[in-house]
Structure formats: structure tokens, C-alpha cells
Amino acid sequence: MNQTISPHPCAHLYGWDKMEHADPATSGRLAESAPRFSVVIPTLNQAETIEDTLLSLIYQNYPNLEIIVADGGSSDGTAAILNRYREEFSAVLPGPDTGQSNAINKGFARASGDIFFWLNSDDYLLPDTLWRVAACFRADADLEFAVGAGDVISLDHHFLRHIPPLPMDEATMLNWKNDQWVMQQCCFWRNTLWQGVGGVDEQLHLLMDYDLWFRFSRRTKAAMINEKLAVMRYYPDAKTVKQRSKTSEELAYVYAKNGAFASLREQVADLVVQRGASESYLNRIHSCLPVRLLKRLSLFPTPANPGT
How far apart are the first and last CA of the chain? Predict the structure, then answer.
């Protein structure tokens, strides 16, 4: 008699689609020595995708994972999905919050793991990612930061682009605007490194990860994991797509904050040319920066001489 085999719960996901069962090897891997991961999932009204995020974590079959969800006050079907998986979470932090960065900081304030990462509620991990990352950290007791590869896909799971890991040094940070970047979904770091830099900057709403990597790069070297660890969705309603016009201003802020003055001058010159060099626009840039940085803004070109 033929036995019907149920499809794996993640079989509909890109990168999981050829799996019929969870990897049986994972349950036999030295669970007692597995470092504890803490993941924060910031979310707001993403009922369409958050279940994929959760399933990709649950079916890592990793024995020492702390899942913290920070919901900024969703009004769609998110709450019902979270209730369905409630026993899998260490905490669900209800809104409101002041944005994604605030939600991430609130989440990690509750975290108890050795290794941190965050996963947006429209992205997900690939099979065995946590085991691969754990092996990397176990192999080097002094390692504080690890970066892997990942794929960018469409909302309906079609491949768009592969993103390799990069050395997270000063040169990489300054080359970010030239399309040389890593996927935040593929970055993992020690709790102590997070505490040392004070979390993400809540004045940033798009480039909080880039600013965090900039500060990490001043403290430690990252290991590169040359395997695909996660998937990032790219689609018209994604925040990074809808708010793309704000990216240039946040990039100028990150340069100023981290002392990258040559790059700051170039970035603001580009902004002036792109936006017509209006006085009101430059004033808006000034107002986005903290007061302690205003004295450094003599690096900005004046509207009368755009691009110089």
C-alpha cells in the first residue's frame, strides 16, 4: 500500500522547495553545545508574509533559539498568525513603537542569547542556517561578527539576485553606495558586541543596519560564510522600495556620524545636483542631523555652487 507523504511545511518557500522532510541529521547534532540564538522580528501589518518568516525559524530544528516578535500595532491578520505560533515565542512585544529601529532595540533588550540577529517579517532563513552559523562561532571563540551570502527574490519567490558576503571593513563601508552591500538577514553577532555599540540608531529608519555595521567594523573583523543563509524579498510595497527617496539623506547622516567626511562631501554634492540645490532642501538635510554634528556640516556645498 502506498503511503502518502505530506509536503514539508516550508516546501512552498524559495530554497526550501525541494525538501520533503526536515533534515533528520539536525536532531542528532550535539544540542547540548549549541550556542543560544536570539532573533528579533519587527513587524507591522505583514500578515501576508510573516508566517513564512516564522516557519523558516521553527523548521531550523535548532534546539536553542529564542524568538522575540515586536509588533508595532498591526491591524491586519498578523495577530491571528502570531497566536497560532505563540508557544514558539519567548516574547511578543505589542506596539506602539516609534519605528523599526525602536522595535529592534526593544526586542534585544529582552534577549538572553549568545548570538543575535534580526529578521524582517517579509524575509526568511534557508535550511540549516543556524547550524552553519553556530559552527562558525564554535570554531572561533573570539569571533564576534559573521556575514553570509543570500538571495534577493520577488514576493512570489522568483530569484532576482545573489548577494555574496563581503569583508566588513572600512573600505567596504565606504563602497556601500556603489551597490556593494551585504544582506542584513545574513548577519549574526555576539550579544557583547551589540551591547558595546548600544544597539541601532533610532533616528534611522532605512539604514540602521548599515550604520550598525559601520560601528561594528570599528571594533572587530567579520568572518565570511560562503554559503547562502537567508532570503530577502524585494517588491513595490517593501519599505526599502517605498521610502527609497530618503536613503540619500540617511546615508549622509551615517557618513557624518561615523566621521567619513570625504564620502559625506561627495554624497551631499550628489544630493544637491539631484535635487536642484534649493536652499529649503539643504535646510531639511540640516534638520535631520543631530545638533552635535551641525558644526561639521561646513563640508556641505552651498546651493550657489552645486556639486563643488
Answer: 78
Q: What are phi and psi of 149, to 5 degrees?
A: -90, 165
143: left (phi over 0), alpha (psi -120 to 50) or beta: beta
Give the domain ranges of the chain. Answer: 26-242, 244-299
Smallest CA-to-CA distance from 240 within 122, 158, 107, 141 is with 122
Give the per-residue pLDDT at 259.
81
Indicate the CATH number for domain 26-242.
3.90.550.10
What residues contact 267, with CB distance under 8 A and at least 6 apart? Answer: 177, 248, 251, 252, 255
Residues 197-217 have pLDDT tens digits of 999 999 999 999 999 999 999
Strands (E), the chain: 37-43, 65-71, 91-93, 115-118, 124-125, 145-153, 159-163, 187-190, 223-233
Give Cα 168 distance to the centre of its chain.
15
Q: What is the residue whose three cell numbers read 562561532?
A: 137
What does the alpha-carbon distance between residue 208 and residue 297 come to, in Å, rounded to a whole number?
21
Q: Tell me which residue of 94, 92, 98, 152 sits closest to 122, measured CA to CA.
A: 152
Question: What's the rounded Cα separation, in Å, for the pair 184 and 41?
Answer: 13
Whether 122 and 54 have beta carbons less than 8 Å apart is answered as: no
